[in-house]
Amino acid sequence: MADGFVDPAVLDKVKVGKGYIAAKYGFRNHWYPAILSEEIEEEQVVPAQICGEKIIFKRIDGKVFCIKDQCVHKGVPLSRKVECYTKNTITCWYHGFTYRFEDGVLNGIVGVPESNVIGRKRVRTYAVEERKGIIFVFIGDEETVPPPLEEDVPPGFLSEGHVLRGRRQDVNANWRIGAENGFDSTHIFIHKDSILVEDADLALPLGLVPLHNGAFETTEEDGGPKGVHDIFSPEAINPVFEGKIDGETVRMGRPEGKNMLPQTISIWMPCALRVQPWPAPDITQYEFYVPIDGERHIYFQFLGKTVGSVEEEAAFDKEFKERWVEKALIGFNKDDIWAREANQEFYADDTGWLRESLFEADGNIVRWRKLADEHNRGIQGPEHVR
Amino acid sequence: MADGFVDPAVLDKVKVGKGYIAAKYGFRNHWYPAILSEEIEEEQVVPAQICGEKIIFKRIDGKVFCIKDQCVHKGVPLSRKVECYTKNTITCWYHGFTYRFEDGVLNGIVGVPESNVIGRKRVRTYAVEERKGIIFVFIGDEETVPPPLEEDVPPGFLSEGHVLRGRRQDVNANWRIGAENGFDSTHIFIHKDSILVEDADLALPLGLVPLHNGAFETTEEDGGPKGVHDIFSPEAINPVFEGKIDGETVRMGRPEGKNMLPQTISIWMPCALRVQPWPAPDITQYEFYVPIDGERHIYFQFLGKTVGSVEEEAAFDKEFKERWVEKALIGFNKDDIWAREANQEFYADDTGWLRESLFEADGNIVRWRKLADEHNRGIQGPEHVR
Amino acid sequence: MADGFVDPAVLDKVKVGKGYIAAKYGFRNHWYPAILSEEIEEEQVVPAQICGEKIIFKRIDGKVFCIKDQCVHKGVPLSRKVECYTKNTITCWYHGFTYRFEDGVLNGIVGVPESNVIGRKRVRTYAVEERKGIIFVFIGDEETVPPPLEEDVPPGFLSEGHVLRGRRQDVNANWRIGAENGFDSTHIFIHKDSILVEDADLALPLGLVPLHNGAFETTEEDGGPKGVHDIFSPEAINPVFEGKIDGETVRMGRPEGKNMLPQTISIWMPCALRVQPWPAPDITQYEFYVPIDGERHIYFQFLGKTVGSVEEEAAFDKEFKERWVEKALIGFNKDDIWAREANQEFYADDTGWLRESLFEADGNIVRWRKLADEHNRGIQGPEHVR
After folding, report:
1. In C65-185, which ranges are continuous DSSP H helix?
2. Neighbour subunits, C (≥3 Cβ pairs < 8 A)
3. What domains are defined for chain A?
């Protein structure tokens, strides 16, 4: 399982953001969304893999707990065949080893009730937070006290009155390819024929070109989320609607669209994007590119809206289900998923980080790499995924 | 093909049974069952892979011979397209190189009958024994004189009057995972819902717990089979029918069953298990976990019974086919196959041998590892499988 | 991608033709057929992989150009989604980077028309020649001036009045296994039951046995093609029709056939075979075993005939399509494809080159290895395939 981490010989040659390039399996000691609240009912057991670590969730009396998905005895995955004999535990299907979710302690062996290892062994536990319909898990050292969840999500994500609706799917590309695809301002070129463009009457340029290095800013205050944001003001970024080659116009964007969106795009530690507003003037889109392992990520998409009443939330819920899932989250972002998967091979052995050739419009991505290098709380390594 | 052997850095850290952990491809200079007699008719050619070695059998005038399944010339597998022009030989489909099964000598090249390499090259041969309806092959150095087959099977297996019926199937797990699954006394937990339990009216506990270290013995006499056996006497092993967690009964075994089986389970070099009696009071079950390569084994299952007449054998044959294949060999042991395959990933890169955490009920398995380390006649290595 | 090249420890032990054994991905600075003319129409874009290099062809005003199939920016394959906005260019589907085929220069970015990298970056180009209905590409260093195509094809291949018809298919075997299978005079054994034998009324022996070392000659003049050829004269090669083992006839070839073909077989740098005449007295067969990567080759088959008029060419075209494709190119050579794929495993990790055991009839193959070692213009290495 140590396979798939970055070759040190490659890492030695990296000049900018070495810690980011090293983080093929993600950053350690951060919060990550893992599943949606609606996916785990009372007493249901749900497995996941985050940053290479195989874990298992259970909801007990409403609260969600998480332990490592591997019996200490012979190492089998507990989730391969779920057996629960008490509400607070899971029992290994192989020899009956039973673990308490609260502390991971082996509190029984079904067929060996007098064993002297009972109470003396345990699986590790993971801190869990459930907020806004999302189950977050802290992937890090068990002895590390997790910082507030607010530090690991975009600003505003957890605000009162801000409701979220979302979905997730696995993508066959490293999480950094996901993150950079989302934050990359010139990749808008791939969306030129998207079904969302007409549906949402978007003014869609073929390129969003930063006019100078001040086209992005960072947020790096202690105790808060760390991120880089583009400002889409006319002084900072030029939306190009007339596509040209050698001075000749070869393709038009859609300048006639009524909605010129978004106004700012930002990326946040450890792996979140915020597009504001999108796909409509009163909605914000959030994305998380959660590492599964070195070659795949869970792509979480959320739409957020600040509502003032239950009725307003119900209306947003209806709009989400009936319009945005199909047109925006699937219809528009399928181009991104396709692009990430098409880009995976080049970076698969990590030499792509040395062979790529970024250009001036990629300044925000370089800044993101530096910020992630500086503000991460650790790098996930081979020793963490066994 | 050298891939898949144990990393020496892992092996260095092994404390108990180093030679056993090293034997990912099995032990060398031992007899292994390869196919059933009924699978190879007169002049039929049958390929197999044992301990990583690709071999080919042919029955000639009733006797089965075995040679390496690789032409010396360009290395192609002879079995890929079988061509036999004389009873005693096989001809390579590519250039007509023809090998005599008796001694492996290149005794002709069909289209180059005057070649000066005829009689001067050969493929290696393997010693074969056919006993009790089973074709055994000696996987070892060609210059080693094989010991009697009796040393490499459980005691009683070849006894006069003892008839055997069996089957085989490939399992996607290392052979040692197969062997340890079979000999492991607390894994009985996985069989609690087996169809065999009611069918054979078994008293099935949820755990078989050794009461002290004397719960198993070894057989290590020179010139005989080497093995470890559990004794299921009340002084040695406690059958637990009441499954408990935290003092609460959470699940019952089947104490009401009429047949309390087995009375002893034993494991034998190089890779055989004996369960006595099983699945009925007058029958013994034998299993062999024959290495195919580092990740798979052939799972042979035999039922043995001592009979006094041809009629008794015919009755046993009928019982075997009509009852035991479905209820016991398939119905009961499918749980074991599933468990082995689910356990394979943890041990696949061999770090599992360092990360596992055995408990007091695994004393017999630790003893088996030591015995196998001490009594094997060699370790299969990369140089043997090309 | 560096995986799959020859292990230096293996190469150290090679005694004959070290450069040939090293050339797992083919020879560098040579011409290779890549596609057929009929496969690429005006303005059509066609990708290929030759010697591990991913390239892309486009026909512009009748002439075919070739560039590397990888955007300089983030390394995605241009061919994954072809977008062309001008006749002379291809535009990367991801960020609109646009490359001119003639010189590979980045001559525009559709959505960033003012970018300062325009005109300053480029992808590499490859020299192309279109002759006799075949697109050849020069796989080599961009600064190397390609020699005339005539040096890299068999003599006569490009002669005036010599018309060619052909096909191609991918084969799952290293290109050297393809080349040696074709040139190997005793492999005729595999064709003994081919449908072509009766159809073309061939005199087909079971072996073609060289009578002495003079059974082959080489062509090594400066400035011309380099090759080894067998002469099928009665003094040099003995066609064996009576297959024998231990002095007994076990199988007959087909001595009664009217057409005793071929009269000479030759092999040419970098990877071509000529069989003359074949499959009929007035036709020559040419084959190219073009490396795709270390494990696959494109198998080109051509039949060539010297014609004196348009009508004669039309008749040959009809004969090719209606008879030879089915009976010869597919029907006869499918045995060869099968044999190459069956031989791949033995040579896959390159230890097969050390473990094989050639015999006296393989003298022409040994000579070919030496000639290829001496006359190649470079070895394709890991640094060339990224």
Report:
1. 175-183
2. A, B
3. 31-139 (2.102.10.10), 149-384 (3.90.380.10)
